Amino acid sequence: MIEIAGQSINFQDPVTLLVLGAGVAVILILWLLLAGVRAAKRSAQLAEPLAQQMAHLGQHVQQLGQGQEQLRGGLTHVSEAQANAQVQMIQTVEARLSTVQQQMNDRLADNAMRAQRAMAEMQERMKESLHGSSKQTATSLTQLQERLKMIDKAQDNITKLSGDVLSLQDILSNKQTRGAFGEIQLHDIVSKALPSDSYSLQHTLSNGKRADCLIHLPNPPGPIVIDSKFPLEPYEALRNAENQAQLQEAARQMKTALRAHIKAISEKYIIEGETADGALMFLPSEAVYAELHANFPDIVREGFAARVWIVSPTTCMATLNTMRAILKDARMREQAGAIRKELHMLYGDVDRLGTRVANLDRHFGQAAKDIQEIRISAEKAGKRARRLDNFDFEELAEGKEAEVVPLSKPGD
């Protein structure tokens, strides 16, 4: 688009293109006229037809000028219409921009309000969340303190337990204290399984040997001895063996110690006519007992042959419960006479009770008979009372006059 003499010319407008085409045609015609004039000079014969054509072309040029004037007027009208349209468009765009701006302002204000409310709600939620978090943190800290206290207490217990373990190791490292440990454990098991009058601790036999515990069983089998033995050193050597040679040496020591214990118990605590024909060797460790039965069955068989039965805390409790049943049965046999006497007296009481029940039943029968007779007499008395009550209001039937008792005056 270019501007000429204050008017804008758009080359894309069809009218402008038409005008330009017309101008180009005029220029071409003029160029042709010039060519014709030059040709007239060369050919005099063509001058007259050329003049006619020139006249004709002049008319066409005049018509083209008129068309150009009309085109100019149309262009002016079009430019004015275009200007008006641009003004209206600008006004419309301004109005729309104003409306859009107002809507944008309203939306921005609304969004600001929403953002403010959301911010306030978020702040409130954050306050609540922080408050709840502070409470949870305080609760967690309290629980943590309690758990730390429990951990401290457990640590104290562990420290005490470690001290007890060290004390136990000190006890087990000494033969005398280890023997006392086995005796105490034996005493605890026996006291829980048997009555206090059915056993004796540290009982001295007729040969002067003192047994750890003597169970007073009836004959047979008779009193039986339980002696506590604890071969800890051979067992620890067996557990701590690092090669086959050490293992064999520890096994040899274990067999030697157990055979010595079995022999000592068989010789000291099995006395004919005084004790039973067997004795019990108490091992206060389940681990040693399990090792013995797992890897040294020949020692167990030797104990059977010597009538020395090896027991652990668990098997000792089971054996003592069996002995308790034997003692209970023996005591019941001892009390059989008293029980028979009591049964005889109970039979007499039951017989007297039967007699008294029969007497009571007889009394109940007589009382029932008396009550029946009393009820019959009461019914008769009731009937007579009703007749006397209705005496003055009933008419005497015919033939009943003789049954009426005549009334007599006083003195007759």
Blueprint (SSEs and pairs):
Blueprint: E1 2-4, E2 7-9, H1 14-42, H2 47-173, H3 175-193, E3 199-204, E4 210-215, E5 224-228, H4 232-239, H5 244-268, E6 279-282, H6 286-295, H7 297-305, E7 308-311, H8 313-334, H9 336-389
Parallel strand pairs: 5-6, 6-7
Antiparallel strand pairs: 1-2, 3-4, 4-5
Helix pairs in contact: 1-2, 2-3, 3-8, 4-5
Question: If you had to describe this structure to a student in words, what would you say it looks like?
Answer:
The chain folds into 3 domains: 1-93; 130-173; 176-341. 74% of the residues lie in helices and 8% in strands. The chain contains 9 helices and 7 strands; from the N terminus they run ββαααβββααβααβαα. A hairpin with a 5-residue loop joins strand 3 (199-204) and strand 4. Helix 1 packs antiparallel against helix 2, helix 3 crosses helix 8 and helix 4 (232-239) runs antiparallel to helix 5. It is elongated, with a radius of gyration of 71 Å.
List keywords for this structure.
two-stranded antiparallel ribbon; 9 helices; 412 residues; alpha/beta; elongated; 5-stranded mixed sheet
The strand count comes to 7
Q: Please give the count of helices.
A: 9
- Helix share, percent: over 70%
Structurally, the number of domains stands at 3
- The order of strands across the largest sheet is 3-4-5-6-7
Distance between the termini: 176 Å
Name the structural class.
alpha/beta
Instruction: Give the ordered list of helices and strands.
Output: EEHHHEEEHHEHHEHH
As residue ranges, the low-confidence spans are 165-173
- Indicate the overall shape: elongated
Beta content comes to: 5-15%
- How large, in whole angstroms, is the Cα Rg? 71 Å
Query: What value does the average pLDDT take?
Result: 76
For the report, how would you describe the main beta sheet?
5 strands, mixed
